[in-house]
Backbone:
C-alpha cells in the first residue's frame, strides 16, 4: 500500500473526513448500547432530543459549546504550528483563577469594562501558563506534550490550594469554592431562565478573528507555513521561535478565556470541577474540524450536543454517560483516517 | 534531623519500592515503543484500561495472575490499535496517542459504570498478598524494606533485566533498536519494519497495562476513577530521563518514587506550614525538571516520530 499526495482535494472529499468520523463513532456507540441491553433507536432518539429537542436543551448545548469552541481554537492554532499544546485544561483553570482573583471585589468597574478586564486578565494568565512550555521547547528541545500535560496537574493543585485557602468563600458553608464574581463582571444571559450567556459572542468572535488572522495576516501565514514545513518556513525568513511564541500566547489566551467564560458566564464562581475536561475535548473539537477556525465552531456544537444528549439519555436509560467520551475519542481516531483518505490517494504497490 | 529520620525508616524504603512499580512497568513499556520509533501517548489510557481489566478479572472470580495476563492482553489490543494508525498508516503519533488515551480510559469507565451502575464506592477485591522472601525477609533493616512485598512487585523489578536482556542480547531486540534509529537498514536485511514496530508497540502497551493493573490488584484493592493520576505522563518523562536505557529507567523510577514517598512523609512533619497541594505538585514538577536536566544531551532514537513508508526516500 502506497500513499500518494493528491494535487488538490475536492470540497466534498474534504468533508468526508468528519462525516466518516461521526459515522464510525456512532457505530461504536451503537455497539456499546446493544451491549448494555438497551434499544439503540430509543437511545439515539433520546440523545438527539436531549441535545436539540427543546429550546432549553438547545441552550444547554450551546452553553456547553462556548468553552469547547475556545479550547478548540486554542488547540487549533497550536496544532497548526505543530506545537502540541495538551495543557488547555490547565490554562483554562489559570484563566478562571485570575478572573476570580480580580472579579470578586478587587476592583470596581462599570459592567462592560469589568467583563473586558476579566477576559484580558484571564487570557493573560492562560498565555502565561503556556510560556514555560514554549521556552523549554524552543531553547532546550524539551517535548511540549509532556510539559503541558504535567503542568495541568500542577495548575489544578494550585487552584485547589487557592480554593481551600486564600480565595475560599467564607459564606459557602465549608465547600471549597470562591466568592462569587461581582455582578458587574457577570456575562448576561442571552435567553431568560437558561444558562446560555453572552460568552457565545466571545467564542464566535474569537473564531472569526482567528480565521481572518490565519488566512490574511502575516502572522497567520507564518503559523501555517511553520506547521506545514518548518525547514521551508525558515528558508523563507520566518522565525520559528518568535512565531511559536505568538502561537503560545494565542493558544494559552484562548484557553484562559474559556475559563473566564465558565466562571463569569456559566457558574458565577470558581470550583474545582469547573471543567469536565474541556481542555482535552477541545483537541477533539479541533481535530474534527481539521483545525479550521470556523469548522471548530460547528464541531464544538456537535460535540457539546453529544455530551448533553448522552447525559440526558443516561438519566432515562441504563447507558452510562461515558458513552459520549467514547464517541468523542473514536471520532478523533476516525477523523485521522478520514483526513488521510482526503489528502492522499491510496495505491496498491 | 527529620529528614534523616525519614531516610532511616524502613517504611520509607518499602514505600519507595511500592510506588516505583507501576512507574517501572509503564516506563519500560514506553521505552520499548520509543526504541522502536513510536511515541506512544496512549500510555495514560492504557494504564487506566489495564487497571480496570485487572480489577474486573478478579471481581468476576478470576485469579490474580490471570488478571495480570488479561490486563496485558487488553494493553496489547490498544497497542495494536495505536500501531495500526501510526505504524501501518503513518498517521500523527501525537494525535493517535491522545485519541487512544481518551478511548481507552472512556471505555474503561464505561464498562465499570455499566457493570455497577448503583455503587458509589468501588467494590473491593482481594489483592496480591505480601510474600516474604524466605531468609532475606528476616534481615534487620533490608528485610522489611525490600523483601516483604507482593509477587507482582518482585516481578516489576525482574522485568528490568528481562527487558535489558531482550533489547541488548537478542536478535529481536537488536531489530527493535535498529527500527528506532534507521528503519531502512532493517528493511535492507529483509525484516518487515511495519510488523516489527507493531509487535514492539503491542509488547510495550502490554507492559503499560500491567503497570496499571498493579494499582488495582497489588497497591490498592479497587478501581477508582482517575486512579492513574498522571503516572503515564510521568513515565513518558522518565523515559527521556533514562536516555532510553532500562537500567537508567530503574534508577529514574526509584529516584522518582523515593521523592514521592519522601514528600508524603515530609507532609506529615511540615504539613502545618505548607499546604498539602504543594507537596502533591512535586512529582509533576520534578518530572519536568528531570526532562530539562537531560534535554541538552538527549539521545533520541533517530527515527522516533518518523513514520516509515516503504520505498519512500528519507
Residues:
Amino acid at each position: 500500500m502506497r500513499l500518494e499526495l493528491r494535487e488538490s482535494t475536492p470540497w466534498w472529499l474534504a468533508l468526508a473526513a468528519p462525516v466518516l468520523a461521526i459515522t464510525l463513532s456512532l457505530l461504536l456507540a451503537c455497539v456499546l448500547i446493544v451491549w448494555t441491553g438497551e434499544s439503540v433507536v430509543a437511545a439515539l432518539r433520546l440523545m438527539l432530543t436531549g441535545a436539540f429537542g427543546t429550546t432549553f436543551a438547545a441552550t444547554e448545548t450551546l452553553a456547553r459549546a462556548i468553552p469547547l469552541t475556545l479550547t478548540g481554537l486554542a488547540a487549533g492554532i497550536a496544532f497548526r504550528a505543530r506545537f502540541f499544546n495538551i495543557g488547555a485544561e490547565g490554562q483554562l483553570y489559570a484563566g478562571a483563577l485570575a478572573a476570580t482573583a480580580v472579579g470578586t471585589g478587587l476592583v470596581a468597574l462599570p459592567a462592560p469594562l469589568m467583563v473586558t478586564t476579566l477576559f484580558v486578565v484571564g487570557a493573560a494568565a492562560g498565555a502565561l501558563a503556556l510560556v514555560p512550555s514554549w521556552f523549554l521547547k524552543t531553547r532546550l528541545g524539551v517535548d511540549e506534550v509532556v510539559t503541558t500535560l504535567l503542568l495541568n496537574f500542577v495548575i489544578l493543585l494550585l487552584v485547589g490550594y487557592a480554593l481551600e485557602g486564600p480565595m475560599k468563600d467564607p459564606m459557602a458553608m465549608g465547600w471549597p469554592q470562591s466568592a462569587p464574581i461581582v455582578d458587574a463582571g457577570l456575562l448576561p444571559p442571552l435567553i431568560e431562565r437558561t444558562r446560555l450567556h453572552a460568552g457565545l459572542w466571545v467564542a464566535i468572535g474569537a473564531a472569526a478573528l482567528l480565521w481572518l488572522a490565519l488566512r490574511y495576516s502575516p502572522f497567520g501565514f507564518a503559523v501555517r507555513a511553520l506547521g506545514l514545513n518548518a525547514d521551508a518556513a525558515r528558508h523563507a525568513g520566518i522565525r520559528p521561535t518568535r512565531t511559536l511564541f505568538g502561537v503560545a500566547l494565542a493558544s494559552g489566551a484562548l484557553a484562559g478565556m474559556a475559563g473566564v467564560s465558565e466562571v463569569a458566564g456559566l457558574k458565577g464562581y470558581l470550583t474545582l470541577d469547573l471543567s469536565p475536561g474541556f481542555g482535552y475535548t477541545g483537541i477533539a473539537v479541533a481535530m474534527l474540524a481539521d483545525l479550521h477556525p470556523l469548522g471548530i465552531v460547528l464541531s464544538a456544537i456537535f460535540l457539546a450536543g453529544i455530551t448533553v444528549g448522552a447525559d440526558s439519555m443516561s438519566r432515562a436509560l441504563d447507558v452510562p454517560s461515558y458513552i459520549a467520551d467514547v464517541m468523542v475519542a473514536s471520532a478523533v481516531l476516525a477523523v485521522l483516517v478520514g483526513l488521510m483518505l482526503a489528502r492522499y490517494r491510496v495505491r496498491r504497490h | 534531623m527529620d529528614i534523616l529520620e525519614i531516610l532511616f525508616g524502613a517504611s520509607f524504603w518499602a514505600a519507595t519500592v511500592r510506588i516505583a512499580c507501576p512507574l517501572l512497568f509503564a516506563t519500560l513499556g514506553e521505552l520499548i515503543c520509543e526504541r522502536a520509533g513510536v511515541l506512544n501517548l496512549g500510555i495514560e489510557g492504557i494504564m487506566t484500561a489495564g487497571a480496570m481489566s485487572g480489577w474486573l478479572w478478579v471481581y468476576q472470580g478470576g485469579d490474580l495472575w490471570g488478571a495480570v495476563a488479561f490486563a496485558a492482553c487488553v494493553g496489547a489490543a490498544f497497542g495494536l490499535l495505536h500501531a495500526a494508525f501510526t505504524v501501518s498508516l503513518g498517521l500523527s503519533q501525537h494525535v493517535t496517542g491522545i485519541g487512544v488515551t481518551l478511548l481507552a480510559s472512556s471505555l474503561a469507565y464505561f464498562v465499570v459504570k455499566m457493570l455497577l451502575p448503583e455503587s458509589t464506592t468501588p467494590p473491593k477485591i482481594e489483592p496480591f498478598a505480601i510474600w516474604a522472601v524466605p531468609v532475606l525477609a528476616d534481615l534487620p533493616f533490608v528485610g522489611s524494606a525490600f523483601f516483604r512485598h507482593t509477587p507482582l512487585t518482585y516481578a516489576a523489578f525482574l522485568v528490568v533485566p528481562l527487558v535489558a536482556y531482550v533489547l541488548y542480547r537478542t536478535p529481536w531486540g537488536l531489530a527493535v533498536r535498529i527500527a528506532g534509529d534507521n528503519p531502512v537498514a532493517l528493511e535492507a536485511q529483509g525484516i518487515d519494519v511495519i510488523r516489527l514496530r507493531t509487535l514492539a508497540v503491542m509488547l510495550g502497551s502490554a507492559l503499560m497495562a500491567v503497570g496499571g493493573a498493579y494499582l488495582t490488584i497489588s497497591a490498592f484493592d479497587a478501581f477508582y476513577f482517575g486512579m492513574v493520576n498522571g503516572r503515564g505522563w510521568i513515565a513518558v518523562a522518565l523515559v527521556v530521563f533514562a536516555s532510553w536505557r532500562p537500567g537508567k529507567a530503574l534508577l529514574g523510577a526509584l529516584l522518582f518514587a523515593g521523592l514521592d514517598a519522601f514528600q508524603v512523609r515530609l507532609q506529615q512533619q511540615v504539613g502545618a506550614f505548607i499546604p498539602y497541594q504543594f507537596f502533591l505538585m512535586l512529582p509533576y514538577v520534578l518530572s519536568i525538571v528531570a526532562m530539562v536536566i537531560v534535554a541538552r544531551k538527549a539521545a533520541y532514537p533517530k527515527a522516533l516520530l518518523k513514520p516509515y513508508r516503504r520505498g519512500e526516500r528519507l
Chain B has a mean pLDDT of 90. Residues 2-116+136-295 of chain B form a domain with the ABC transporter involved in vitamin B12 uptake, BtuC fold (CATH 1.10.3470). Chain B is about 70% helix and 0% strand.
